[in-house]
Amino acid sequence: MASPATTAPLALIAAGGTGGHMFPAQALAELLLAEGWRVKLSTDDRGARYAGGFPEAVERSIVRSATTARGGLAGKLAAPLKIAAGVLSAQAAFRRNRPAVVIGFGGYPTIPAMSAAVTLGVPRMIHEQNGVMGRVNRLFAARVQRVACGTWPTDLPAGVLGLHTGNPVRQAVLDQTAAPYSPPGAGPLHLLVIGGSQGARVLSDVVPAAIAALPPHLRTRLRVSHQARTEDADRVIAAYADAGIAADVQPFFTDVPERLARAQLVVSRSGASSLADITVIGRPAILIPYAAATGDHQTANAQSLAEAGAALVHPESVLDAPSLTRDIRAILSDPARASQMASAALSLARPDAARRLYDLVTEIAR
Ligand SMILES: CC(=O)N[C@H]1[C@@H](OP(=O)(O)OP(=O)(O)OC[C@H]2O[C@@H](n3ccc(=O)[nH]c3=O)[C@H](O)[C@@H]2O)O[C@H](CO)[C@@H](O)[C@@H]1O
User: How are beta strands 285-287 and 222-227 bridged, if at all?
Assistant: First the structure.
């Protein structure tokens, strides 16, 4: 008799590029495994760097793919060949071990698995994290059975019906759902500074200077966790040290959920998963959208928190240290306001997003 593990349905999750695609994929993978599914992850080398948090039981396959949207002429000319090779190998893999469903989270590394699913008639769906669809998701939107949307409204191509699920967050974030907020008081003040999955130079340029200009009664109590790109880390460490500020500077914090739970205030980019994490745990935020994101979607993402009273937004075009000092000081000096912002963030939370996505998976899998 076959073991339950081999009779369990197989879900193939395709995601790639940045953590912005990988973290929601991880959230769904965790739930599928908990529900008894087998799960495979199809990604590229870059995506694999963010796969460290995926459960061990998730089988990984590194695909060949490429984009014609970036890189030099030689890369652009070679891209169709690489994509074709990736599609052929995904089709061969599907013939050996046919998935019950394929779920794409966007990014060009999803092209081989999504194409193989379309050509072999495997049930398939996509999840779009942002209000403006990514290029690859847009390409497949009309060829899948379900289009799940993290943000609403999402600009779907004509004739495509989207379903709003929210952006799924990892189990480690769910473990801190609505962890009680401790408003800024007389004790230490925890400030978390995160720039999306890759870090953001602008935060390293401006935040240490803004914090150094805070009045001593706030500055001396600060405990800063600052995610800085490796190339910026030395100057960020030096800036905090010169100002006598206790700071933990790392290129990537593997324990963001715990640091978020401790934080009195978060300064962050407004990528989809960062905001999902901030709202599920419920913390006040100052957001600095990445203006060059496709369709300026980070500004739209940030706007929904600003409108709910959960965040203050500083567009990069007018960002400077004095205005940031003013807002950090205003929030850290006003516990009632900070608590209101934390509650407003929670009011936008979708902790059930992974479950909603899972329900769509079970509807179409066969
Ligand atoms: C620059 C860019 O184009 N960013 C896009 C990218 O986001 P990007 O890859 O920057 O990621 P997101 O902001 O969506 O998510 C980052 C995730 O990394 C976690 N984290 C962050 C820092 C850290 O030290 N440790 C850690 O675990 C955050 O808690 C969050 O869960 O994809 C998202 C989803 O398509 C988009 O909304 C973003 O606009």
Answer: unpaired
